[in-house]
Write a structure and sequence with these properties.
With 849 residues, the chain is mainly α. It is 60% helix and 4% strand. The strands form two sheets. Strands 2-3-4-1-5 form a five-stranded parallel beta sheet, with helices on both faces. The chain has a two-stranded antiparallel sheet with strand order 6-7.
Length: 849
């Protein structure tokens, strides 16, 4: 890396320059120094309370190397946020080749958290004291970022201190790294009357105690208010921080010349800007001089790094309110900004500003660039970007002027499992397909793919109508559109139940012939000839026809080459391992899993989350408590309000993990949502898998009548396809329910649709599987019986609760260490725990100690 690049990288994360005039805040600095000794500091206070200047003062006093990262709402995507953080850390050691290699890795956006952690481990040992400041952290609301960030920051060397500046209270997940005396609030930042007097004194003005008190009351001690009063020279009793805008209007804004005010109004539409960008936006050739003057005099414009500037948030809100009430041509400003970003290849920002301009008739070009140049195979990242742009409330005019917006919105809602919104936008897209075609044929291909996954009609019915779309496309994208805009499996392991449940399509040879002749195959391009046999093998796997599935996969593996998409290849490896595992071919399965691990890590890191979900699911077959807890602690397991399609496999693993840990409430929440998702979107496999889990949960909790009804319903649906694998896999958890159902079928007068042969086949196979695996409901079943500890076991757990070691317990009880360990092990088994702390907590929860 050249010296010029190094200099730019370092300057990019350099803190803003302290204004020429500022209050020293010695007491606050003392508090910050003490908090920093804990390595992590959270400053949560409202806008204008002085968080930024206080952090700058502390950095200045500490003498640490500094990484200042100013965040905005468009950093709310996991990949974007962690790229910023990783770049900031790299700026400390810009000549570190290992770190640079990770930053420039094409897979960074697919696994940003893992890459950032690996980047930290590549840091060379260094005694230099450093600090990272995450400014405006309240703008980051992404659950994955909030949950994962503490674990990432903990990996930083002990020479680092991290300051997190936010308007919001501290997230609960941060409590693992932020202790009580390193959490600062408005109470710590607020100016006292004495500090106000000292600040004014440094400006050559002397206030009486009464005037200082007036200034405190009028500003509520907020830094921005105190600064405004100091700049204006006016103190008015009765004013508060909420009327800062009036202070600025009366005593500062009105004193500026028209040119400066016009410059500020026009540049306020930008979050950050350079002098060149400002000159382009305003037409002022002396933009650099204006910006330097405003920054130097602390007029609420901060010089961030290199040539990047940003207005203080409260001042920017003041300006934006004013610009929309002025005669400034805001639409032209937005369009100029959009064109600027497009020229610089920043298509996401270009789309944002063009949409903000309200000229939706010109949005198609920006939409096309966004859709086809921002996706790199990582569906999670793609959804993050879409969420930022398509969760806004577009006016009706937007869709009239740019009907292609319906296609993009439908795609977003489809991937996030919001079926009602998807249906609305899909229907509107179909209605206006002729107009959409006028913009660009790629939009029609996108609409065709959207139609192919529409849950309201069978794929075989769609086959007849694909030709209508095809007539509007002069030439299909080379190799199929899925190579450019969408994942066929949406990052799900199994192709036959991925973007769509293809059970009915692949059920018979006749159906497969029909689909091969449809325009749908044109969309898939040269991948189709491998996708179809992969799906057929998946269907045989669901039918527990493992021999046939194995032979199909062997043939397919011979056909697959590097020309096939990475995702298709990794899906085939998932299925191949599943088949070998259930065939009991242990050595081959181990080799296949090693191959899968290596391939995902080297070529398909966007599958890592699902790979971990898959491996956890296997461990949960044996009710592995440690695996369940580790999964639930993962950063990608967060609170959900709806089932995102692209995370569906992970959600099933989460449901199983909750069952294993005995959290029936959350387990029921997940399986109920998954079941509803499967039913609403006509996904038979998802519906039935969730139903099997729900039945197991009901039976374990004593709701036997409900369990029989739920599993019977699932079996009737599965019987149509001959599917039994998802029932067999739950083994011991469903075996007693299957026996009850088999008994009912055998009774005279049974009028249900279930066939004795199908239920018996499921029961026999589940029985064999239960001999090898405990099943996810083992904990629930065990807990139906009250836990009883022996007198010695209870005594040992009581001593453990008081902090005694095994050696100390030996002294107190007079027993040998082997005896103590035996009693402890038996107590752990009864309590279904693996550690002393968990044993104590569980025993207290059950009232045993």
């Amino acid at each position: 890396m050249s010296e010029t690049q190094n200099a730019f990288l370092k300057s990019r994360f350099t803190p803003a320059v302290l204004p020429e005039v500022y209050a020293p805040r010695r007491e606050l600095l003392s508090v910050l120094h003490k908090a920093a000794s804990r390595h992590f500091v959270y400053v949560g206070a409202p806008a204008g309370s002085g968080k930024t200047v206080s952090a700058l003062l502390w950095l200045n006093a500490s003498g640490r190397k500094s990484i200042w990262i100013g965040l905005n709402e468009y950093d709310n995507a996991t990949a974007v946020f962690y790229k910023q953080l990783a770049l900031g850390i790299f700026s400390i050691q810009p000549d570190n080749e290992g770190m640079r290699g990770l930053l420039t890795d094409s897979h960074f956006s697919a696994t940003p958290i893992e890459h950032t952690i690996r980047l930290i481990t590549e840091m060379r040992p260094d005694d230099a004291l450093c600090a990272i400041v995450l400014d405006d952290a309240h703008l980051v609301t992404n659950f994955e970022i909030i949950k994962s960030l503490p674990a990432v920051l903990e990996r930083l060397p002990r020479t680092f201190v991290t300051l997190i500046l936010s308007r919001n209270p501290m997230p609960e997940s941060f409590r693992r790294i932020i202790v009580e005396d390193s959490e600062l609030s408005l109470a710590h930042l607020r100016f006292s009357p004495d500090e106000i007097r000292l600040y004014f004194q440094s400006l050559g003005r002397f206030l009486s105690p009464e005037e200082a008190q007036f200034a405190f009351v009028s500003t509520d001690g907020l830094a921005i208010g105190v600064n405004a009063v100091a700049m204006s020279g006016h103190i008015e009793l009765g004013k508060s921080a909420s009327v800062f805008a009036q202070y600025f209007e009366d005593h500062i804004w009105n004193t500026w010349d028209d040119r400066t005010r016009d410059f500020c109004l026009k540049t306020s539409v930008l979050d950050e800007f350079t002098p060149y960008f400002a000159e382009r936006l305003t037409g002022y050739g002396d933009a650099p001089e204006i910006m330097e003057r405003l920054s130097r005099t602390n007029a609420f414009l901060s010089h961030l790094h290199e040539d990047i500037y940003r207005f203080h948030h409260l001042f920017q809100e003041f300006l934006r309110d004013k610009v929309h009430r002025s005669d400034v041509d805001v639409i032209a400003l937005y369009k100029t900004a959009a064109e600027f970003y497009r020229e610089n290849g920043e298509y996401s920002m270009a789309l944002r500003f063009w949409l903000d301009s309200g000229d939706y008739k010109g949005a198609d070009a920006f939409l096309l660039l966004f859709m086809f140049h921002n996706n790199h195979g990582d569906i999670a990242g793609y959804v993050d970007f879409l969420r930022l742009y398509f969760m806004r409330d577009f006016p009706e005019k937007a869709f009239k002027d740019a009907p292609a917006l319906h296609v993009c919105c439908a795609w977003y809602y489809y991937m996030t499992g919001q079926y009602k919104e998807y249906e609305h936008h899909a229907d509107e897209g179909y209605k206006h397909i002729m107009r959409i075609a006028l913009y660009d044929p790629k939009f029609v291909e996108f609409a065709m793919l959207m139609y192919s996954v529409d849950h309201r009609s069978e794929m075989l019915d769609k086959v007849k109508r694909f030709g209508v779309f095809g007539k509007l496309v002069k030439g299909f994208s080379k190799d199929g559109i899925i190579r450019y805009i969408a994942s066929f499996t949406h990052n799900l392991p199994y192709a036959h139940r991925s973007s769509y449940d293809y059970s009915e399509v692949l059920r018979t040879h006749e159906n497969i012939v029909k689909i091969r002749k449809s325009a749908f195959i044109t969309l898939l391009g040269d991948q189709a000839e491998c996708i179809i046999p992969l799906g057929v093998s998946g269907i045989d796997y669901e039918r527990n026809c493992l021999g046939a599935a194995y032979e199909e996969m062997r043939l397919l593996n011979r056909q697959l080459t590097e020309r096939n998409s990475v995702e298709l290849r990794v899906s085939s490896k998932f299925l191949y391992h599943s088949i070998l595992l259930h065939m009991g071919r242990t050595e081959e399965a181990d080799a296949a899993l090693n191959d899968l691990n290596a391939f995902v890590n080297s070529s398909a890191p966007f599958f890592l989350s699902n790979l971990e979900a898959y491996k956890t699911k296997i461990a949960l077959l044996d009710c592995d408590m440690a695996a369940a807890k580790a999964w639930l602690d993962s950063y990608y397991v967060v609170e959900v309000t709806y089932m995102e399609l692209y995370k569906l496999f992970q959600h099933f693993t989460t449901a199983r993990a909750y069952m294993v840990t005995g959290d029936g409430v959350n387990a029921r929440k997940y399986v109920t949502m998954l079941r509803a998702f499967g039913q609403k979107l006509n996904r038979v496999c998802d519906y039935c898998e969730a139903s099997v889990l729900l039945a197991a949960l009901d039976w374990a909790e004593g709701n036997k009548k409900e369990a029989v009804a739920v599993l019977s319903d699932a079996l009737e649906r599965l019987q149509h396809y001959g599917y039994s694998r998802m029932v067999i896999d739950e083994g011991a958890a469903v075996l007693p329910i299957l026996k009850r159902i088999a008994s009912q079928i055998g009774k005279q007068g049974y009028t249900g649709k279930l066939k004795r042969e199908f239920v018996n086949e499921c029961m026999i196979s589940a029985y064999a599987f239960a001999k090898q695996h405990k099943g996810v409901a083992a904990y629930h079943v065990r807990q139906q019986k009250p836990v009883k500890l022996s007198k010695q076991q209870k005594n040992i757990i009581t001593l453990l609760s008081k902090g005694y070691t095994n050696a100390q317990i030996c002294e107190v009880t007079g027993r040998k260490i082997t005896t103590i360990k035996t009693h402890t092990s038996l107590a752990y088994e009864k309590l279904s725990v693996n550690s002393a702390m968990d044993a104590v907590l569980k025993a207290r929860e059950l009232g045993l100690i």
